[in-house]
Amino acid sequence: MKFGDRLKKSRLEKGLTQEQVAQNLYVTRQTISGWENEISYPDIINLIKLSDYYQVSLDTLLKEDRGMREYMEKKEVTKSLRPVYNMLMFTDLLLIVLLISNIMDFIKLGILFIPTLFLVLFTVYALNRLKSFDSSSSLGLTYEWQKYLSGYKGLKYALVLPTFIILSGLIISVLKGMLVGGSIFLAGLIILIPIVTKKRWH
C-alpha cells in the first residue's frame, strides 16, 4: 500500500475528516489532501506527528513506498547541496565586485585580472551545472530571481544579464582598452551562447 493510501485508510478507520486532521496537526486541509494524494509529502516533523496521531509506526507508514523514500532522499541531498550552492553564489558575487572595483580604479588587480575573470566563469559554470541537476531532480535549490535569469520564465529575462555584460564590455573597451573590455565582452558571449542554443527555445 502506498503512503497516501495508508494515510487515508488510517484517517477513515478513525472516522475523521481531512479538516479535523488538519486542525489537530495545525496544517491546512489542502495539505492533508496533498499528502493523501501524494501530490506532496510531509517533512520529518509532520511525519512523526502523523505516526503519533494515527498510532501507526513510521515503518508501517513508509513501508514499500518508493515515492516517500525518494522525497526524503531529495530533502537530504538538498540540505547537503544548499551550502555549496550558496557559497558558490557568494564567491561569484565577490569576484564580480573585485572585477568591477578594478575597472573603476578602486583597486588594482594587475596581472590577477584575467585569472579572476576566469574564476568568475568557472563559478558561473559550476552554478549552471548545479541548476541543471536541480531542474532534472526537482531539488528546489534555485531562488525565484534566478529562475528569471536562467530562462525558466522566458528567453527575454534570460537575455538581460549576458546583454548587460556584453554592452559593459563594449563600453569598457572604448574607455579602458581592448584587453579589459574584450575580456568582459567574451565573458558575456560565453554566458549568452548556451542560453540562445537551449532546446526549449526551438
From TrEMBL:
Matches recorded under PROSITE patterns: HTH_CROC1
SMART domains: HTH_XRE (SM00530)
GO molecular function: DNA binding
Presence of keyword DNA-binding: yes
Xref: InterPro entries: Cro/C1-type_HTH (IPR001387), Lambda_DNA-bd_dom_sf (IPR010982)
Residues annotated as domain HTH cro/C1-type: 7-61
Keyword list, A-Z: DNA-binding, Membrane, Transmembrane, Transmembrane helix
Transmembrane segments: 84-103, 109-127, 154-172, 178-197
Superkingdom in the source lineage: Bacteria
Keyword Nucleotide-binding: no
Name of the protein described by the UniProt record: HTH-type transcriptional regulator ImmR
Native species: Leuconostoc suionicum
